[in-house]
Amino acid sequence: MKALVVVPTYDERANIDELVRRTLAVPDVDLLIVDDGSPDGTGERADELAADEPRLRVLHRPRKAGLGSAYRDGLGLGLDEGYEALVEMDADLSHDPAVLPDLIAALQHSDLAIGSRYVPGGGVANWPWHRRMLSAGGNLYVRLLTGLPVRDATSGFRAFRAAVLRGIGLRELRSEGYSFQLETALKAWRTGFRTTEVPITFVERVAGASKISRAIVVEAMLRVLLWGVRCVPTRLLGRRPHPESVAASR
Asked: What is the DSSP track for 26-54?
């Protein structure tokens, strides 16, 4: 399956060489770096690496415009170029590129494969207690409010069949941060696409600074609340999408 790995970056120069090396060690994947004008020169270093590597490309954006926006541009480019599988992955090496073959292989029997910390075999390493509580509590909040049957809906390590991104209207999504991951998973499920979770171990970054902010967390909580309210009538009636509508979206 022809796969494109999309990695948004902002001030990740300390990680970019290792990220590229480990990702392109995986056969049959291409890598797209989406850099938001990183002041530390991440984009320029990515260009230097791309000059000698045909499987690596860099999409430069003029300013920091948000995670969701970066994924819309990067994944959208992959759709336009005919990739069958599109993968999201963080730049800070918290996601192990060695797991890419497992995620992509899971698309043989699913439409969306999520790298999950909260299924048997998954876990986290080197996280402080407050990060563990925030992540676990956030995922519980999502399940309770929306009914989404996914243990790790906030995970940013995931692979989509191209049909999923077309079916959920990728370019019409407006969420940022955590909420982009939540919205794509929720819309895929509500549309009737098959979702599976692949166990991963999430490792806390060693270099660079986390981009998670209070504003990102608040946006996710408010959007989930809104989606939960909208889901109430459907959940009470027990409705699921008609198979015909799902097939048509593919």
From this structure: STTEEEEEEE---TTSHHHHHHHHHTT-T
pLDDT, tens digit, 9 for 90 and up, residues 213-226: 566 555 656 665 56
Tell me the C-alpha distance between 147 and 190, whole Å: 10
On whether the CB atoms of residues 198 and 103 are closer than 8 A, the answer is yes
Cα 168 to Cα 164: distance, rounded to the nearest angstrom: 6
35 token code pair: 């850099």
Q: Is 3 helix (H, G, I), strand (E, B) or coil?
A: strand
pLDDT digits (tens, 9 = 90+) for 114-152: 999 999 999 988 877 777 887 787 888 878 888 889 999
* Residues forming a β-bridge with 201: 123
Rounded distance between C-alpha atoms, residue 32 and residue 54, angstroms: 11
Q: Considering the entire predicted model, what is its pTM? A: 0.84
Instruction: Give dist(CA 31, CA 97) in Å, integer.
Output: 11
